[in-house]
Specification:
Elements: H1 2-34, E1 41-44, E2 47-50, E3 56-61, E4 68-69, E5 74-78, H2 80-114, H3 121-153, E6 156-158, E7 163-166, E8 175-176, E9 183-187, E10 192-195, H4 202-209
Antiparallel strand pairs: 1-10, 2-9, 3-5, 3-8, 4-7, 5-6, 7-9
Helix pairs in contact: 2-3
Length: about 220
């Protein structure tokens, strides 16, 4: 009798353990299929590296790291006085060659009207050649002026889109070279969050992997 009781007890204990194990496995399966979570996720955004198209001393820095900026907002300014003087000099050259071209045009026109009856063909051709040379110099001066104007405009570095300033490594008084990356801009509208496994909510994903200072306005955090 005792042997039978002992066997029944062992069988019951084994059965209970099997049932408990089944319940534990079932609950784990439900948890990982219905409400799984992970701290591993991929967060991506469109990042723009901003570099000036001109060189010079940085005179003003208008933003700070991690600041949210609007499109076309001024980030920093480079040595405007020098580029303003370069533009003024180029405009003076254009004005000079415009006056000179007008004088040479009148002289060439006068000689062409008089013709070979009043002067030699060589003198007429010389006046025409001088006019063409001055017109060429005028065109070069105008191109130089346009480039100087473009350089002056590009001394003001603006944000290309709405976003967060990051990796700001420029300071007033520093010399910056053309094409050297000064700051990066993380575009505000192109954030994506891709968890490696499913996650209960987008907000939770952003909360775990994005610093508080850069959380998306769209998440409500």
């Amino acid at each position: 009798m005792k042997t039978l009781t002992r066997k029944l007890s062992r069988t019951a204990i084994t059965l209970v353990l099997v049932i408990l194990a089944f319940i534990a496995i079932f609950r784990a399966w439900v948890y990982y299929t219905e409400s799984p979570w992970t701290r591993d996720a991929r967060f991506s955004a469109d990042v723009v590296a901003i570099a000036p198209d001109v060189a010079g001393l940085i005179t003003h820095v208008n933003v700070h790291d991690n600041q949210l900026v609007k499109k076309d907002q001024v980030l920093f300014t480079i040595d405007q006085p020098r580029y303003q003087k370069a533009l003024a000099e180029a405009e003076a050259d254009v004005a000079y060659y415009q006056v000179l071209a007008q004088e040479k045009r009148q002289e060439a026109g006068r000689r062409n009207r008089l013709g070979v009856q009043a002067m030699s063909r060589e003198e007429i051709d010389q006046a025409n050649n001088v006019l063409q040379t001055v017109l060429h110099q005028l065109a070069k001066a105008q191109a130089t002026r346009d480039l100087a104007k473009l350089d002056l405009e590009r001394t003001v570095i603006r944000a290309p889109a709405d976003g967060w300033v990051t990796n700001l490594n420029v300071y007033a008084g520093e010399f910056i070279t053309r094409g050297s990356t000064a700051v990066a801009l993380v575009k505000r509208t192109l954030f994506t969050c891709r968890p490696i496994w499913k996650r209960p909510s987008w907000k939770a994903c952003v909360r775990d992997i994005v610093p508080k200072s850069r959380r998306l306005a769209a998440t409500g955090y």
